Amino acid sequence: MNSYELFIGLRYTRSRQRTRFISVISLISIVGIALGMTVLITVLSVFNGFQREVRTRMLSAVAHIQVSDLNERLSDWRAVADAVKRHPEVKGTAPYVTAQGLLTSGGNVHGAFLRGIVPELEDTVDDLSRNMRSGQLSALKPGEFSIILGDALARQLGVVPGDVIVLVAPQGQVTPAGVIPRLRQFTVVGTFNVGHYEIDSTLGLIHMEDAQRLYRMGTDVTGVRVKLDDLFKAPQVARELLPLLQPTNTVLDWTRMNATYFRAVDLEKRMMSLLLFFIIAIAAFNLVSSLFMVVKEKNADIAILRTLGASPGGVLRVFMIQGVLIGFVGVLFGIVFGIIGALNVDTIVSFVEHVFGFKFLPQDVYQISDLPSELRAQDVIVTAITAFVLASLATIYPSWRASKVNPAEALRYE
69: which residues sit within 8 A by CB, 6+ positions away? Predict the structure, then answer.
C-alpha cells in the first residue's frame, strides 16, 4: 500500500466545513456499530449469568444424577449405591422418596413436592444444609413427622418453625363410604432458601422413614441421588453407570431432568443474538450511504488523483481505508462500552427500576430476583470480529464505484 493512500484515506475522515454533513453521517455509523455491540455483549453476558445462576441454585437442591427403577421403586437401594460408588467421578450418594401432597394450615392450602431424605446423607448430594434459613436438617427425626419447608412455601402457608400443618396424601383409604384421604400432622422444624423460586415455593423435606410409612412403601425408596465431582460430566457419567446397574434401573442426569427449561433459555439467547446482530448489520451498512456521499462529493479529487497517476486500485484503497477506519473505531468503542455494561448490569438495572418504578425481574416468573452477568471473552471476540467484517464488507461497493470515476467526466464542470 502506497503512503498517499493511507494519508488521503485518513484525511477524508476528518471534518471540514463543507463536508460537515458527511462527517456527521460517519459519526452516526460509528455510534450505531458501537451501540449495537454494547447491547449485544451486555445481553449475551446477562444470558450467560442467568443460565449459570439458575443452574447453580437449581442444583443446590437437585441431584446431578438420579438412579431409579422402571416403576420408580428400588427395593435394595444400598446395592445400587454401592454399584454407583465404583465410578471414579461419583462424589456421594443418598436414597430418597419423592411424592406429592397437599399442605394445609388454617385456611391456606398449597400443593407440594415432598422429598423423604436421610439427613446425615443429604450433605453428600446437595447444598440444602448451607441454604437453611432456620433450623437444621438434623431436626428431621424418624417417627416424629417433622418437616422443613422452602421459605416461599412457608410464607404461602403462613407458618413458622414450631407450627403444625396437615399433609393430605393422594393415596386414600378405601372404605364402604368411598375413598377417604389420608391425613397426617407435621411439625415445621425449619425453612430453607436456595434462591430458586420454583423450588422454594413447592419443596418440603421429611425424614425418609416417615415418607415410607406415610406412602406405604415399606423399605422401598424412589431412587438414589448422586453427586459428581464435575456436574458437566453428568451425561457421560450417566451413560457409563448403566452397565454397572440392573437392566430395569433407569439413570437420569440433570440436563435431561431440566432439558425443556435449559433448551428454552438457549433458544431465547440465540434468537436475541440474531436480532441484535441485525442491529449491528444495519449500522454497518449505513457506511454504504456515507461512503457514497463521500465519493459523490470527492469526484473532482478522485479525477485529480487519477490524472496525477493514481491507479483505480489506489483510489479503491483510499476509500476502503476510510470505511475500515470508521468500522474499527465503532468496534473499539463497542468493546469498551460493552464490557462496562456487562460488568455493571446490576447498577444499570437498579437505576432503570428506580426511574420507571417497576420490577425488572419478578421472582415468580424468572425464578431469580437479581440480574446476574457473566462476561465471556469468546462472546466479545465473536461480536467484534462479526461487526468489523460487516463494516469492512460495507465499504467494498462504494470504494469500487469510486475507482470507476471517469476523470474527464468528473472535471467537465469543475
Answer: 223, 248, 249, 250
Grid coordinates representing 201 are 415455593
Question: Of 188, 129, 200, which Cα lies nearest the Cα of 161?
Answer: 188
Retrieve residue 175's grid coordinates. 372404605
Cα(111)–Cα(107) distance, integer angstroms: 14
User: Locate cell 460430566: which residue?
Assistant: 233
Report how far residue 130's alpha carbon sits from residue 126's, in angstroms, rounded to the nearest whole number.
9
Give tens-digit pLDDT for 191-240. 998 877 888 899 999 999 999 988 888 889 999 999 998 888 888 999 99
Q: Which residue has the cell 394445609?
A: 104
For the record, the C-alpha cell of 263 comes out as: 433448551
pLDDT at 411: 54
Is the C-alpha dihedral spanning 97, 98, 102, 104 positive or negative? positive
With contact defined as beta carbons under 8 Å apart, do 5 and 325 qualify?
no
Q: 372 phi and psi, to 5 degrees?
A: -80, 165
Q: Say if residues 146 and 204 touch (Cβ distance below 8 Å).
A: no
Query: Which of 42, 7, 62, 30 has the alpha carbon at shortest distance from 323?
Result: 30
Cell of 273: 443474538
Predicted structure pTM score:
0.66
Dist. CA 116–CA 103, nearest whole Å: 15
List Cα–Cα distances, 131 to 141, 144, 293, in angstroms: 20, 23, 63
Report domain extents, the chain: 3-57+261-411, 64-254
Give the DSSP letter of residue 376: -
Distance CA 15, CA 24 (A): 9
CB 361 within 8 A of CB 369: yes
Q: How does DSSP classify residue 61?
A: T
Q: Which residues of the chain have pLDDT under 70?
A: 1-23, 25, 171-181, 261, 294-313, 315, 353, 357-370, 402-414
3-state helix, strand, coil in the chain (%, to 5): 55, 20, 25
